[in-house]
Amino acid sequence: MLRKAFRALSWLAALGAAALGAIHGITQASTTSATASIAIAGALGAILIGSFAHRPPFVVSTTAAFAVAVIAASRIIEHRSTSSASPTVELLLLASQVGLVIGLLLIVRRRLLGQLTNVLTDGIIVGLGAWVLVWIFLIQPSLALTSNTPAITAIQSATLGVAMIVLFLLATLLFSNTAPSAPVAFLGLAVSLGLVGIILRSVIVRTDAHLSASTINASFLIAFALAGASFLHPNIRHINSGAISRSTAPLMTRLMTTTVSLIAPIIVLAITDPHDSTDRWVRTVSVIVLAAAVMLRVIQSVRLNATTQDTLVRNALTDSLTGLPNRILMLEHIEKAIHSSWKTSQRPTVLFIDVDRFKSINDSLGHSTGDAILTEVARRLTSAISPHATVARIAGDEFVVLDSTTESPTQSVVLAERILDALRDPMKGNAGDMFVTASIGVAYAVPNLRLSAEDLMQHADTAMYRAKSAGRNCIALFDDSMLENVTKRLDVETALYRALERNELRLVHQPIVDIDLGIVIGFEALMRWDRKDSGTVS
Predict the structure, then answer these.
(1) Least CB-packed of 63, 371, 453, 495 within 10 Å?
(2) pLDDT, tens digit, 9 for 90 and up, residues 399-412
């Protein structure tokens, strides 16, 4: 109940602050000392209450309180100061941005969930693009102002430079695949509005733009309130831990933002000329670093695509549990072995292996034990065959072995016996030792007989079912009679399904006679199937 109350209070504070700040900026109302004091005290109080109630990471709460207090102090000092630029104000603003960099670094490092490199590169592109614009429109013009001392100009330039690092870290959080939470969104908006306020302040100080102080104050007031709202939300406790991944990565957002961050500086550099050698040097270095970041991102994308493609191909052709080839890949191996066999006297042999009574293991001991059994079977099969043979898992408890170097059916049977021997030793399980047997069907590619990979695997499968019917834990070598029997049985089953609708079934009664009495004491009901092409089946 308390969590719901804090959550509602957090959203109420955020919405109220947004409405109040918007009204303040639109009406161009001047910020009174009382209004500023209430906003600052409310933000710091909310951070303090949230820190005690929800126990967020100490560094995060300290950084937020420090940034709010320092920026608030700078605004109060600047409001009371008679000069346009005060060293104390500039140092406080610089300190606030440095503190934000430290706090955001800690959050970003814990929330990226293994996607650090790509996301950081996108953030660098956004930060560098913004840096070029800030240099051209804000920092470089400030160097020509004679009203500011070199120290103040240097501090102001450093503040904007560090602010671009803050922007870069914000972009990194935006581009990550972690699902955004309300506290992260509130803090992100608060930091963004703080950056807007600092940039608008620089525009007023360094250009002839007609912006009122109320516009700047509105952005800072909303930022303070959002910072407080973020700490009132219960989820602030988990802000510094790994977050849940989004169901869909923000690829379009990343693409659009990085594209704009790349194109905008290029257009500005193309239509503006450098003012002096320093301006030319900064532009050149910035463009070189930006181009290097873009090249690095392209390389990362190419590598990621190649890795993803390899992973998809591997997953499509291998079994996820055992790492063995699956049915598709095994059929390719068999097809290659058949095509290569005409050159030599060696012929491919396919063994179809089915673990006996595996369903009972799954039902009684659980699927985790069943998976462990399958993994051990795969290991023993791999160790039992020669290096040039291949093992595949094609279904739940079905394995296939391909040996392309056999020269006779006898060698094929010897290979199957070696596999049976490998499975005789007990397997370790949670319930103790377990003995696992297998039924093996053997199919040898007879010379001068055209067979496809599907045909050879089907023959081995048919032989395996013959081994099953013979009592399991044995070997059956395929011959044509097996296929004929299977075909005949399938034909009978298919015809029997349609026998009723064709009126081919009839009931006969056989009397039961008591020999001692010599009378009929009952009847035995028998079904007869009159097949049109096969006579009567009883």
Answers:
(1) 371
(2) 999 999 998 889 99
